[in-house]
């Protein structure tokens, strides 16, 4: 079995990086973004392409990454002379741009305006129906050609989104470590490389060193060195780490929690953070490690108990359904280096909740 690492061709990050977008695109571009994102980025992008004597065309994203929307954009693109697709905004916009670029056989540049997940660097688009229900995963043959992070814009997003990104990134090392121990395959269908494991560990180390400092800055919408470091950890290090290291229990717990209506208003990373605590109890991790994760989450405002997830009553039957969904056939929890059952997961959820509620 081969060892495989997956990565975007180029990752660019810095204050006012968006001003240089055309220098990196180097081609006439087709930009997809929603109305709000365009209101804060269109002038900057236009000026950059004007300075490089290149053409840029903007198309409003219709807010759902669906096959209907992908096909609509494909048809518009056929009438244009664009040679690169650029997605600007949040996850659904970026996933749509990746899908359109794939079907049109064009390069794609991803420009996140938030750092709330590790999806921008991935070779994956999540497709939904027009009414917002999950449809399917579109597995792409390659990662984005360019990922550009303007840290001034990202630092002005709500601080809760940055914290959510840290919750998602928090799982990276622990899930990759579990996959390495069990020889589970990563998202590229191979075993993780030493480089991927090193990046996953670096991701965790940066979160612990700079996470709380970054939140103090983000709450004032300013970009400090700590914010820069956390944006890189949330996006690039976690992105390479999860794809090239693999997923395990924490994300499966997240998927299980989606069955509860009380959790529907939570961000992805907020549910994943609690999933990390559950995974650590599930694998009987050292108490020092659990403590470190717990207090990190508390210090940056991530949920550490069922009550903080919005689940006010401990109904064992409902929680067992969460555990059953988390252990469904094909779920990533089966990448853990031991047999996992719904009963074991329920026990770990209750233990993590009891500890996290202190």
The CATH class name of the largest domain reads Mainly Alpha
Any idea what the radius of gyration is?
20 Å
Q: Give the SSE string.
A: EHEHEHEHEEEEHHHHHHHHH
Averaged pLDDT, please? 96
Quick one: overall form?
globular
Question: Uncertain regions: pLDDT < 50 for 5+ in a row?
Answer: none
Assembly context of the chains: single chain
- Derived from helix and strand composition plus strand pairing, the structural class reads alpha/beta
Estimate nothing, just give the exact number of structural domains. Answer: 2
**Gap between N and C termini:** 45 Å
Question: Can you describe this structure in just a few lines?
Answer:
The termini are far apart.
Q: Can you describe this structure?
A:
The chain is of the alpha/beta class. The chain folds into two domains: 10-155, Rossmann fold (3-Layer(aba) Sandwich), CATH 3.40.50; 159-356, Dehydroquinate synthase-like, alpha domain. The chain is 52% helix and 12% strand. The protein has 13 helices and eight strands. It has a six-stranded parallel beta sheet with strand order 1-8-5-4-2-3, with helices on both faces. A two-stranded antiparallel sheet has the order 6-7. Helix 9 packs across helix 10 and helix 10 runs antiparallel to helix 11 (287-300). It is globular and about 60 Å long. The protein starts with 9 loop residues before the first strand and ends with a helix. The mean pLDDT is 96.
